[in-house]
Design a protein that fits this description.
The structure holds two protein chains of two kinds. Helices cover 72% and strands 0% of the residues of chain A. By secondary structure, chain A is mostly helical. Chain B has a four-stranded antiparallel β-sheet, with helices on one face. The longest helix of chain B is centred in the N-terminal third of the chain and has 16 residues. The chains are: A mainly alpha, B alpha+beta.
């Protein structure tokens, strides 16, 4: 029963916290009130059963708690009046609450919650933890397990994040105009960070942690409907859906890594690919001035997803898309990826030229994929002695155990062959 | 992890298919909308209750197709949802939020879909070998 109630809470809590935060103007307090309501539900529901409209029940209970608390602390005033009015209104028309569950006001509250949880005043780790907690409905234990850190660490991170938001007087609102664009970037970054931690785990012995990918996808899909006019939101969702479609094909029976072009495409998840292509179409549909970086990466992923076999891949188009990406977000990593696409489209010699131009790039000095890619080009050009050294170097740089094994195996193959 | 929620009649006391009720239909659409907006709805389909039904049965050790037998109301399935949620309890909680009254939706059965993660590696290999394309329909495990 306790787990059943926790599940109901997970479903209801984002809207609950968002609605409460609008009233009390404090995300931390709103979450405490929601948690209080959960504690009361855990006491009462085992006897009464789950109410017909658990969301409305939790909201009413949390509001009552809020009023009690405000009375106790004698902070009677504007907040108190607003809460009292809300509570009265709801008593007179409980059905109203159900209708409200899906209307735009709730959407606006959720959006405010998104932008507050991902506020730049917070560290990136804090944003991730707070977003998973407040919007993903995950408990601290679940977040801790997902990130392989002790639970108290996550708890502290969340407590500190809430305090930071309160101390900085961060308003519970959606930013406007130019600020919206910049802040949206921060929101999308948090979601993609969560996805990537699941997709290519930087720590631990597992190459992927699919549960985190699912959490990020869920967050992305929520955002897409909260901001349907923002092309990049759909771009990010598309990118994640298509990348996640390859989850089952990315590792072999013994957990070893299988690279994109060597994957069994029969094991790609067609439902996620269809969802990803659909999201890409939505991203293109609301981007009259051209695609942003997430949508461009999604378009690249879509080129792979559409190809029936690796040989069918349109690498000329991929190289072009990377060129476009490099223009709007120049970075050594994008350049490295462009080199890979260029080598596929126009031959390894052209790719090697691009990669060699990156060898003195300080940002890539400890990045294992640079020697790994360079090794691949050298091998294709028949320069196996040089290639072997590059693979060994790449193996010494990666932090992922599975990846290290793959690279060592490639180096070894060149020794024996 | 993915779960399938199947709408079924109550086997003991199947309710008759109801006349089209716009309010109920709207409630179902609102349920779909809510799951979609929560980012959990992966796919859903309804089965046409007025459509023909056929069975392929085993007769004398051989499978043969028959038009019918016409199913008892209690055997009819209304449709299904595929949702992606963190735990079984979440899936059950979503099912509990579904409206009711369509006739074929007295029971919302919740079951996890198998993922490659649930199968021993040698079985996965066997499936890959025997059904290289179909293995795409595998739904991933958590």
């Amino acid at each position: 029963m306790q787990r059943a109630i926790s599940a109901v809470y997970r479903i209801e809590s984002p809207r609950l916290i968002a609605g409460l935060a609008r009233m009390v103007r404090d995300v931390g307090l709103a979450e405490e009130l929601a948690q209080d309501a959960l504690v009361i539900a855990l006491e009462k529901w085992p006897e009464t059963g789950v109410p017909d409209n658990p969301g409305a029940w939790l909201m009413a209970t949390a509001k009552r708690r809020a009023i009690d608390q405000l009375r106790r602390t004698k902070r009677v005033g504007e907040k108190h009046d607003a809460l009292q009015q809300d509570l009265e209104a709801e008593r007179s028309d409980p059905q109203q609450q159900i209708a409200e569950a899906l209307d735009d006001d709730v959407g606006d509250d959720l959006l405010r919650l998104v932008f507050t949880s991902c506020h730049p005043v917070l560290s990136s780790e804090a944003r991730v933890a707070l977003t998973l907690r407040l919007l993903g409905g995950l408990e601290s234990t679940e977040i801790a397990r997902a990130f392989l850190v002790p639970e108290p660490t996550i708890q502290q991170r969340i407590v500190r994040a809430k305090r930071t938001l309160a101390d900085a007087n961060v308003p519970f609102e959606v930013p406007h105009g130019d600020e919206l664009r910049a802040r949206l970037g921060s929101v999308l970054e948090v979601v993609y960070l969560i996805f990537n931690e699941g997709y290519s785990a930087t720590t631990g012995s597992d190459w992927m942690r699919p549960a985190l990918c699912e959490d990020a996808l869920r967050l992305g899909r929520i955002l897409a409907e909260l901001m349907p006019r923002e092309s990049e939101v759909h771009g990010l969702v598309s990118l994640m859906e298509i990348q996640a479609s390859r989850t089952r094909a990315r590792s072999g029976p013994n957990g070893e890594i299988v690279l994109l072009l060597e994957q069994n495409r029969g094991r790609w998840d067609r439902i996620l690919i269809a969802r990803g292509l659909n999201a890409l179409a939505r991203a293109i549909g609301v981007a009259p001035d051209g695609l942003g970086p997430y949508a461009l990466q999604a378009a690249i992923a879509a080129c792979h997803a559409r190809a029936r076999t690796a040989d069918d891949t349109n690498f000329v188009e991929i190289a072009r898309l990377y060129g476009e990406l490099a223009t709007i977000t120049p970075s050594p990593i994008v350049e490295l990826n462009r080199a890979v696409a260029v080598s596929r489209a126009y031959g390894p010699a052209r790719g090697l030229e691009l990669v060699d131009a990156l060898r003195d790039e300080p940002a890539l000095a400890h990045y294992h994929l640079l020697p790994s890619v360079r090794g691949d080009f050298l091998h294709k050009l028949g320069r196996d002695d040089e290639a072997r050294l590059e693979f060994a170097r790449a193996a010494s740089l990666t932090r992922n155990e599975r990846e290290r094994q793959l690279l060592l195996a490639r180096a070894k193959k060149l020794t024996s062959g | 992890m993915r779960y399938v929620i199947t709408a079924q009649p109550n086997p003991d006391a199947p309710s008759k298919p109801a006349d089209f009720d716009p309010a109920l239909f709207k409630a179902y659409m609102a349920f779909n909308e809510e799951m979609h907006r929560a980012g959990v709805l992966i796919a859903c389909e309804g089965l046409n209750p007025a459509g023909r039904m056929g069975h392929a049965i085993v007769k004398n050790g051989k499978r043969v197709a028959v038009d019918g037998p016409f199913a008892e109301t209690k055997e009819l399935v209304g449709g299904f949802y595929i949702i992606e949620v963190p735990t079984f309890e979440d899936a059950l909680a979503w099912a509990a939020k579904a409206p009711s009254g369509m006739g074929f939706d007295d029971v919302m059965e919740v079951r996890p879909l198998t993922g490659a993660g649930d199968l021993p590696p040698e079985l996965v290999e066997l499936i890959k070998e025997a059904a290289p394309s179909w293995s795409a329909t595998f739904v991933k495990g958590r």
